[in-house]
Amino acid sequence: MTKASIDLQDLRRRLYVKAKAEPSWRFWGLYVHVCKMETLRAAYEMAKKNDGAPGIDGVTFEAIEAQGVEALLEQLRDELTGRTYQPLPARRQEIPKDGGKVRVLSIPAIRDRVVQGALKLILEPVFEADFQPGSFGYRPKRTAHDAIKRVAEAIVQRKVRVLDFDLRAYFDNVRHDRLLAKVAQRVDDADIMHLLKIMLKAAGKKGVPQGGVISPLLSNLYLNEVDKMLERAREVTRNGKYTHVEYARFADDLVVLIDAYKRHDWLIGAVTKRLREEFAKLQDEKSRTVNLERGESFSFLGFDFRYLRSLRGAMRPHYTPKLKKRTALLRELKEVFRRHRSQPIGRVISLLNPKLRGWVNYFAVGHSSECFSYIKDWVEKKVRRQLAQAQKRKGFCWKRWNRAWLYDTLGLFNGYRVRHDGPKAAPAG
What is the mean pLDDT of the chain? Predict the structure, then answer.
């Protein structure tokens, strides 16, 4: 995240402290801070850093900077202060998914991303004070790895009965009036509420739009009551440091873990009933119950989780990259090789390395070594084959283009290391 100016940072800190100290306080006078050039400038820098495709107006960052960023920001400030700002309709783009399905993104115009970012900068510290420890998605100083570690630690404590939810369809059906009512519990500012209302309307009649700058914050706010319910379940079942229930949510990916003891069977029914009440529109195939001690598995944030016995006889969480994540990466890499078949190999490697580095950095936790070895071997063979075809040679030429040459001379990515900082295995027995 782009670092805001000292004044804006100080404002955000003071908003957070006030919200934390007074959970029922409703904030007023926030709109003036959204309209400030300082806030708009920080929001533009955030949007520029995230880059992304243009919206429905086709205006790119290059075009904006050619005409002058300050001119755009001054125009937005004038529209906001004059109450004449109107967001453009979001551009809808379909992203193909497995099984022939598509994911629909709502892409705002860059000018609207800036205004959404400015609103987020002011509202985020207010709601961040209310969010729960088990919520990790798109929050400051919280990562997907933190959520994965929390799940793994729960499995170490033998919380092996898992309620697995995919909430994407749920967010698509969020009612705007209910969402605005949740915002109003903390915000007593008519201009803020109006701005938020027209932003939501620009993306459609219902749902939290995937692709909007402020959408992750709104999604977390909408599900905060569910997080609070799960937090209460943790505390009610607490026995010293141990709890019988754990949960982790990263945006639309939620898992609830319940311990293995028979006397806590009622917890499965109670938590499931409460969640089904909240997620009434959730399709059955989007949620399921898993028992890891029966050899079953579940997915969370791109990893497959199992409960296996280690070589020393201890039961431990075992989590590896999902097969479809590996397949998607290889498909993407294969396309790079195909499109740049006639290009110098250095050019190909310059395109491969960032993709490999990003993918490996994300999956470099848990038990990814075997998967990494497979990818490493696959990439090496593809590079050798491309070299052989360019030089009209047969075979892979293992000696001519050995590993040391590929990595030391060509500079092919070679950072396939797993970070072993996860939870320890449970005792044997």
Answer: 89
